[in-house]
Specification:
Layout lengths: L2 H7 L2 H6 L5 E3 L13 H21 L14 E3 L3 H9 L6 E6 L10 H20 L14 H7 L3 E6 L2 H13 L2 E6 L5 H9 L3 E4 L4 H13 L4 E4 L5 H8 L1 H11 L10 E6 L4 H14 L3 E8 L4 H8 L30 H5 L5 E5 L1 H15 L9 H12 L9 E6 L7 H19 L2
Parallel strand pairs: 3-11, 4-5, 4-7, 5-6, 8-9, 8-11, 9-10
Antiparallel strand pairs: 1-10, 2-3
Length: 436
């Protein structure tokens, strides 16, 4: 691939190649486009979640208090906001919130939305094909031995760097599916251990994530009773994430957070392969419209969605094609090639992207714990890195009428030893910068 020609057409590629943080403004944002999915598809997914709520309340008692609803809190960061201002040496006029998907039940990450949803849909299809289950039944029956024995005749396979594996693996194994997860070299050991403890088979490959997916796909294709969860292009994963638009709209209303042309909301989403942030962003735009602005945040070493959308090559280009190594401490974002859906559906819905250096993540996760007693994994702190560059590039989003929502994508299941290592690194970096 001729990078010289690409640089001539897209000068910012030179900055990407040099691993410099950038802000990419999407030139097609707000244009009209025919989308392959609709509001009706989102509401169909909402209804499926509601049908499964009685099952989830039984299978996962931690969801019983919310009647089987899997949702995360929207937290106002009253104490983190001044800490953010100190790190960035600038004020933030608007309000700062955290969408704490790190606290989602079952798997503690944004992947609970898409990964769990796809497994639920597969289980529903199997049950309706082989039993007399109807849409109006109490789905808690799916937690009985009769259905567990049925599901044991089927398999689920997924490829993941970690969080998708946890959501798919834990849910599929709970149903009784024979569950196998293929993981890349950058997946954290504790996530592998957690999966094995839940009865999931873990296949480790000494390669990057993009190379793992074809291996997993081929393994699933050998068995007609095995369902493959395709992080590169699954419609069901995408719609599971999109339900977040319905849920967040309700939270904004109940918490009295205005959303209109005079009160815009900017949402900062970490992006790896791009499936989960694209699904969420699609849901936000379809449900709440023009006053909400999605932004993707990516590591300087792995700006796969930025590169794909900037060049309009989408999944046909990988970061290695411009000389990047694809390595990052943000394991959930270590994906060299974007999904088939991300760039195409986001072409007119995504405001832009911002890239960041890994060390910045640790500063924010440490300050978040210090100020709000909320712990997230490194990749989940990515949204904090984008606020300053985005508000500087888009002055209309820098006023006191603006709400900024950082989407914390994971971290609640991290072992204490991992949390301490990340926190200590952040403290060390802050000391060096602040001279504390």
């Amino acid at each position: 691939m001729d990078t010289t020609v690409m640089i001539e057409k897209h000068p910012q590629i030179k900055d990407l190649m040099a691993e410099r943080p950038i802000v990419w403004r999407n030139p097609d944002y707000g244009e009209s486009a025919e989308l392959p999915l609709t509001q009706a598809d989102i509401f169909d997914a909402v209804a499926r979640w509601e049908r499964f709520a009685p099952f989830l309340a039984v299978a996962f008692p931690e969801t019983a208090a919310m009647n089987g609803v899997i949702e995360s809190p929207l937290l106002k960061l009253q104490h983190m906001q001044p800490a953010w201002e100190a790190i960035n040496h600038q004020s933030l006029a608007g309000q700062l919130y955290l969408k704490a998907d790190s606290q989602l039940p079952i798997s503690g990450s944004i992947k609970s939305r898409g990964g769990i949803y796809e497994v639920l849909k597969f289980a529903e299809q199997v049950a309706m094909t082989h039993t007399d289950l109807t849409y109006m039944d109490d789905y808690s029956v799916l937690a009985t031995p009769k259905y567990h024995d049925l599901f044991a005749q089927y398999g689920v396979i997924v490829a993941s760097t970690g969080n998708l594996a946890l959501s798919v693996g834990i849910m599929a194994a709970t149903f009784g599916f024979k569950t196998t997860v293929y993981m890349s070299h950058d997946a954290r050991q504790w996530k592998k251990d957690k999966l094995r403890a839940n009865g999931v088979t873990v296949e480790e490959l000494n390669t990057d994530f993009s190379s793992v997916i074809p291996v997993a796909r081929a393994a699933a294709a050998k068995d007609p009773h095995t369902h493959f969860v395709d992080d590169e292009g699954s419609r069901d994963l995408f719609l599971g994430y999109a339900v977040a638009g319905v849920r967040l709209q309700h939270q904004l209303k109940t918490q009295g957070i205005p959303l209109d042309d005079q009160h815009p909301v900017v949402v900062y989403l970490p992006a790896g392969v791009g499936g989960s942030p694209s699904g969420v962003a699609f849901g936000l735009k379809m449900i709440m419209g023009d006053a909400i602005y999605p932004v993707f945040c990516e590591p300087t070493h792995v700006p796969s969605v930025t590169l794909g959308m900037m060049t309009k090559l989408n999944e046909k280009i990988a970061v290695q094609d411009i000389g990047l190594d694809g390595l990052t401490a943000a394991d959930g974002l270590a994906v060299s090639r974007p999904s088939r859906l991300a760039g195409k559906i986001m072409r007119t819905l995504l405001l832009g992207t911002a890239t960041f250096e890994d060390n910045e993540l640790y500063k924010y996760l440490t300050k978040l714990l210090d100020t709000e007693q909320v712990m997230v994994e490194p990749s989940a702190a990515a949204g904090f890195t984008a606020i300053a560059p985005i508000t500087n590039q888009f002055p209309e989003l820098a006023g006191k009428n603006v709400t900024h929502i950082v989407w914390a994508t994971g971290g609640d299941m991290m072992p204490e030893s991992e949390r301490q290592l990340d926190y200590d690194l952040g403290r060390k970096l802050l000391l060096a910068v602040e001279g504390e």
